[in-house]
Design goal:
Blueprint: H1 4-18, H2 25-41, H3 46-62, H4 71-86, E1 102-107, H5 114-126, E2 132-137, H6 144-155, E3 159-160, H7 168-181, E4 186-191, H8 199-212, E5 216-222, H9 227-240, E6 244-248, H10 257-266, E7 270-274, E8 282-284, H11 287-294, H12 300-310, H13 313-324, H14 330-342, H15 346-351, H16 369-380, H17 384-388, H18 395-405, H19 409-441
Bound molecules: guanosine-5'-diphosphate.
The site of guanosine-5'-diphosphate has 19 residues, from helix 5.
Binding site for GTP: 108-115, 190-194, 248-251
Family: Belongs to the GTP-binding SRP family. SRP54 subfamily.
Subunit structure: Part of the signal recognition particle protein translocation system, which is composed of SRP and FtsY.
Length: 443
């Protein structure tokens, strides 16, 4: 998980402060020393660290924080606000041109994740009912065009290519014209990267920029390269004038230095973060939510959004009816399980809960996805009658289900018991709500 070390250390400093009824200037100094070390260890740019600490100190002392009734809490509030400001304050949204198609030019070094991110953006836009054209303007990396075509096919999205012999500037121009012709909302131009920043690449990118006049120039950088990513961003920004940064591979970046320094060093906002290889592993970047996550205050908003995206509103209504009328079956249970799994790995979701860092053992908890698969297998091995009326599942049926699902009779028993308990709970709820209604009606 991203920011693991930093998060743990900052939370431990904050816990110490929170526990104090009175915070002295010496306590604050000591806490800031630890925060400073934690940030440096997370590979945050040292100038950024210095000005961050100075600001927090100044505010903590200046605002009479130390004399307030809850000094510890106040310091945490200041740290949270300053972390948010450091990462850009407000969320910086993807531009949408009044004159479609909105033109997005993707730039970055080879291997940063440019092509993958182009596909992820298409997916992100599709979720908002916007259609895009992908343009293959990387004519140097042998497999780049093919990779984009495969992505496009997976995403059911057109890909514009003129092979690898044409000038990338011409490809980009004609791609934009094509998107216009087809009345598409966005055109995403995947340009060529190099292993290192080089002038030839920059010149080509500038020529594309001049001809295409993109609405967005997004730099894709690999978070795992830490301060190198920040330096790359600085160079690209001064040469091209970026509109935003996409930080990829944050899933593998345990330190988080790039995420915390990019905005402060380059003044260029992070617009998205990549959290995996799949096309839906892209999240808009919210500095405030990220700060809360780092400080262990949770990110309930993202959690809710994920739930809303995964849960089908019609199904939810139907489920509520079934719960009320106690006609909830194992089929519904399976449905629920699948909806929850659509939200992403359970570990990531747990990490978004407030105080997750303090729950003992959570860090080492590998949420057992296998256990969920086992539950699915058990339910799938039931006959339709058994799913409707689990009461008929006697000893021999249990044995058959266990064999059929590659599990044990104990596993089957456990699931049946859980299901029974859940039903009992629903019964209580439904009786409670009936009671409530009666009262309202004056019974
Ligand atoms: P490009 O040369 O910049 O176009 O890079 P690619 O899009 O081909 O990506 C290089 C590698 O990084 C591929 O193996 C991707 O699957 C992987 N990758 C891209 N983004 C992410 C991410 O957010 N997380 C992880 N774990 N891998 C990523």
């Amino acid at each position: 998980m991203a920011f693991e070390g930093l998060s743990e250390r900052l939370q431990s400093v904050m816990r110490k402060l929170r526990g104090k009824g009175k915070v002295t200037e010496a306590d604050l100094k000591e806490a800031m020393r630890e925060v400073r070390l934690a940030l440096l260890e997370a590979d945050v740019n040292f100038k950024v660290v210095k000005s961050f600490i100075d600001r927090v100190k100044e505010r903590a002392i200046g605002q009479e924080v130390l004399k307030s009734l809850t000094p510890g809490q106040q310091v945490i509030k200041v740290v949270n606000e300053e972390l948010t400001a450091l990462m850009g304050g407000e969320q910086s949204k993807l531009v949408q041109s009044a004159n479609p198609p909105t033109k997005i030019m993707m730039v970055g070094l080879q291997g940063a994740g440019k092509t993958t991110t182009s596909g992820k953006l298409v997916r992100y836009l599709q979720k908002q009912n916007r259609r895009a054209l992908l343009v293959a303007a990387d004519v140097y990396r042998p497999a780049a065009i093919r990779q984009l075509e495969i992505l496009g096919a997976d995403l059911n999205t057109p890909v514009f290519s003129l092979g690898d012999k044409e000038d990338p500037v011409v490809i980009a121009q004609r791609g934009v014209a094509k998107a216009k012709e087809e009345n598409l909302d966005y055109v995403i131009i995947d340009t060529a990267g190099r292993l290192h920043v080089d002038q030839e690449m920059m010149d080509e990118l500038k020529r594309i920029r001049e001809q295409v006049e993109p609405d967005e120039i997004l730099l894709v950088v690999d978070a795992m390269t830490g301060q190198d990513a920040v330096n790359v961003a600085e160079t690209f920004h001064s040469e091209l004038g970026l509109t935003g940064v996409v930080l990829t591979k944050l899933d593998g970046d345990t330190r988080g230095g790039a995420a915390l320094s990019v905005k402060a060093v380059t003044q260029c906002p992070i617009k998205f973060v990549g959290l995996g290889e799949k096309t839906d592993a892209l999240e808009p970047f919210y500095p405030d939510r990220m700060a809360s996550r780092i400080l262990g205050m949770g990110d309930v908003l993202t959690l809710i959004e994920k739930a809303q995206a995964a849960v089908d509103a019609e199904k939810a209504k139907e489920l509520e009816r079934k719960m009320r009328t106690l006609s909830f079956t194992f089929d519904d249970f399976l449905d629920q399980l699948q909806q929850v799994r659509k939200m992403g790995p359970l570990e990531d979701m747990l990490a978004m809960l407030p105080g997750a860092g303090q729950i003992k053992g959570l860090k080492n908890l590998q949420v057992d996805e296998k256990q969920l698969s086992r539950v699915e297998a058990i339910i799938r091995s039931m006959t339709p009658q058994e799913k409707e009326n689990p009461e008929i599942i006697n000893a021999s049926r249990r044995k058959r289900i266990a064999n059929g699902s590659g599990t044990t009779v104990q596993d089957v028993n456990r699931l049946l018991k859980q299901f029974n308990d859940m039903k009992k709970m629903m019964k209580q709820f439904s009786q409670m709500s009936k009671g409530g209604k009666r009262k309202k009606r004056g019974f």
